[in-house]
Structures
1.
Amino acid sequence: MESADIIVIGGGLSGSAVALGLVRLGGGKVLLFDEQLPSQRLSRGNFGLTWYMCKGGSSPVYAKWCRMATEQWPAFAAELEEESGYDLELEWTGGAVHAVGEEQFAAYEQSVQSLRETCKQAGLDYPVRMIRREEFAGMIPHLPIGEAVTGFMYAADQGHVNPLKLLGALRAEFQKRGGRYFCGKSVTAIQPATAGSCVVLADGERFPCAKVVIAAGHGTNKLLAPLGERLPIYPQRGQLLVTERHPRLLDIPILAVRQTPDGTFVIGLSTEETGHDSQVTMEAMKNQAANAITLFPSLARLNWVRAWGAVRVMTPDGAPIYSRLRDYPAITAIALHSAVSLAPLKISAIAPWILGVKETEQISSFSNGRFHV
């Protein structure tokens, strides 16, 4: 039996970032349990965008949360790279969403204006603009744009990163700072104990601790059910395709297409309600390839070498859940989409909140209670 101050259940991007934040703040002995279920390793299916654009359309609080995260990304990455020794492959080159036809261009213009007003309510600017294809073509001169593309939604202060290297860096620094990482550790139950503490049961062992953080994706509700809690999360499949390596042509990531530093093009823009099925489908691959070739016709000449699917964790309003259990305040549950974009806030806001050091004002808006009014 090994005791700890805090146990984090879930070793993906969110759990690893929170665990790192806890040890950076001197949270005591922190254990990170990772069950390593292949179907739930969402970092493998994350597109790697560090964006605020298009997020928070109906929620000023979430729009502000995303802007705060993006503003922190360059400094967050620099510190993490220095401390972990990993190169995150962060490129702070902006980001864009392409429009096909005048009707879609106009719809995007309206969306930008709506988000600008939403952000204004939160006291934020929203430096996103619509630009015509000719202007954007000058920004990526080595990759011709398809004739059907009329323009782009564009913001300069965002970028993209390698999600797997981000995950590795978070775990590496966590362990360098004294955190203990348990790979393949399956948690079966959390038992509230005396004086507000807990006992975590995992693979037949007991782990007493003062606090528990559950960041186990779709495994979260299995642990919460015996405690009388449930998060309204649901699965949504996304699929990605990767091409062979090619000399670098695209420095600015597009929502549907980005080129990595090693030269591969990553294609992905699918949302499917298929439960927990993470298989790839021919229909989705065809649709995504056609969309990418509409944007950049020369991609049709490349070999497409790999494809895979992953199951996202989604909430009814798209915003994250950060919630202490009402009856067991020593237990915190976390669930969200956009784990890459929001990663810096796990260090700067969520970890201090869990430790009771500081509570950023937006956090209360993301409790599970907002779905029970």
2.
Amino acid sequence: MLLIVALVANAEVKYVFYFIGDGMGANQVLAAEMYRSAIQGEPLGRVQTLMTTFPYSGHASSYSKTNGITDSAAAGTCLATGTKTRNGMLGMDQDSAKLTTIAEELKAQGWGIGIMTTVAIDHATPAAFYAHVPDRDKYYKIGQQLASSDFDFFGGAGFHHPQGKHDDKKMNLYRNAEEAGYTIAHGVEEAQKLLMNPPSMADKLILVQKTDDEGAKHGSNLSYAIDRKPGDLTLAQIVSTAIPFLEARHERFFMMVEGGMIDYACHGDDAATAIGEVWDMDEAMQVAYKFYEQHPDETLIVVTADHETGGLALGNSDYTLHLDVLQNQKCSSWILSDKFTQLFKDKKKPSWAEVQNLYRENLGFWEQVEITADEEKELKALYKKARKGKAKDTKNMYKSVNALGEAGIALLNKKAHIGWTTHAHSAHAIPIFAIGPNAAVFSGWHDNTDIVPLIKKAVLE
């Protein structure tokens, strides 16, 4: 669909939605659209994400103060403050001086503030909007600063290390937040009940997943969309909860919404899972867009990324793509890895037929996806190494993955004609999309230092 929006002269922006796709380069967006187009039988790219229908778009460079390739802490700090810093630093400049974030600035002006993500609420990108530490791994200190931020709403998986890693004397971060006036809601059902109460019943809210949700044991992430079970907390649900919560308590609000697990999937070079995460963020964006339709003269939506992850390439041989084969992947590389690990734990030395069955059930190999004799020979050789205990797991940014599972995902990506250059970040340009009053300022080429000043310009003009 094509949106045609006129500039609103002297508009007063009262609501800002700031979407950040962690690891989402332009190719991640294009892959998501081309994949869905392919499986729906549409011309390639005709099935669009909401963001690419926005009337204004641009690109930005993402390097940090010290590195040609940024990490999420430096990039998040820049997207929150407009200032570049060293990799690993949050809310501080290269000399460790505290920076003021746009969320803190608007909070001081009386705006309601919501920070939400599909990963931990003390992870680098969300933390960049409220924390000021020289090391992004200081999760306990970051969690303490979350409680003292006085922001109105947080939503996500929970805290990485709510008790601290090894110090039982430290106060649990959830209890610390409650003492700072936050109500903790475990799952969207609890949050919805709170919304039915008068605003005074819950002035500040932290919405986290239920303890039986995927990933809840360590609070590091919500379920991947491809792995989601009924009842699992979603980013769209978090946004749907945050909007009425903030609207009931403030005349203006600012929300940072992170699709954090695009990055996780791309660190694992897992195209099908990454595509699912792009569309999952799109669902959350649809919630914000419905609000925009009700308040078009007062709502600004900006979508960007902190960096690209994986060096995703659409094309690895000839002039064709076969993204439709990715629909045969039934789970993330994480879950597939766990299945292979469990198989070898249960059977010690499982048969090749049992290994083939896992590939067949989860990736469609030999049935929906043709496997050549040479490709089967390579998989079988790896299987023989695994039987001897010589096939080592691969450690990427967030998880060690079983060699057999990783090989299967890599082969499916190859069949789709997708390539990757790295398991880490790249220096690829990041996309920017915008709609709303004064959104034209986001068009063109920028550096990531420009984005916060542009938001302020759109809000203040």
3.
Amino acid sequence: MTLKHSPLDSNHRALGAKMVPFGGWDMPLNYADGTLAEHKACREAAVAFDVSHLGTVRVTGPDALDRLQAALTNDLTRIAPGRAQYTHLLDASDASVLDDIIVWWIDAERFDVMPNASNTDDVIAALGGGAVDVTAERALIALQGPEARRLLAEVFPAAADVGRFRVQELDWNGVACTVAGTGYTGEDGVEIAVAAEHASSTWDTFMAAGFKPAGLGARDTLRLEAALPLHGHELGAGITPLQAGLGWVVAWDKPSGFIGKEALLAERERGVQRRLRSLTVEGRRPPRAEQTVLVDGEPAGVVTSGNFSPALGHGIALAFLPPEVEIGDEVAIDVRGDAVPAQVVKGPFVEKK
């Protein structure tokens, strides 16, 4: 398969990034200082991620709102233009989460729908005619960390003022940008979409301002500490919003309904057969995806994501377990034949500063 390349590809290579395939793209896994250093920099200071592999599907016109309302689970009328919303696109037959999405409501008749890297075509198909893939036209840079807004204010003050889950179109020295107060690390920050031809100079400006580059490795450990789901792990085929503990993104009563509503209603009525739980493990030995979770010594579930938590200094995991397993219960994870004790806890594992 031919991999797609970010408009920032040359910037990453100049910084010595280790590049890996991800969702059909060639993206940086980490840079010279390594994933642990990048993770720490995001928790304590500020980093820049290239997230250009995420899709941007533009939906415009007088019927744009109605089309999104009829397809997606959440209710956009809860917000307004200039805001962003997290939502799901479901499979009509079994209410599996085909994709989890951020919608940027730019103005009355323009929405930028942000699917995961490999799901753009599915989202376009669900939204129908008039949904246009504009991913290749822009780069998307995520600035994250407790110092992100302070550093950004030194070079792009208006962007630093965009609030959490707010969206604003801005002019930055003659360059048009769309800025949203969204992210995927558990820390504060913004994501900035900029035309591809201006991406390299924009990235370099952020590097000069004091942001550290961070790759997919740190992005994954950060989102896991924040107990945020990853499509293909905590969401995907056979996994519904109710199983994932994300029922709050479902607007059951909106007049338009949404794709997969009947199947999801049926699951709600009969009760879910499993729930996503957060687990902590003593010691530095990390749990991993696909490992079996034991309840009273018997196989009862499977780890969906697991790793060593740099912030906490021990292993953490997300796993689907029977609904009767509660927070505070003791379980075990089969780590290469060893039953490693674990405890069910309330997520997130790490709260933002």
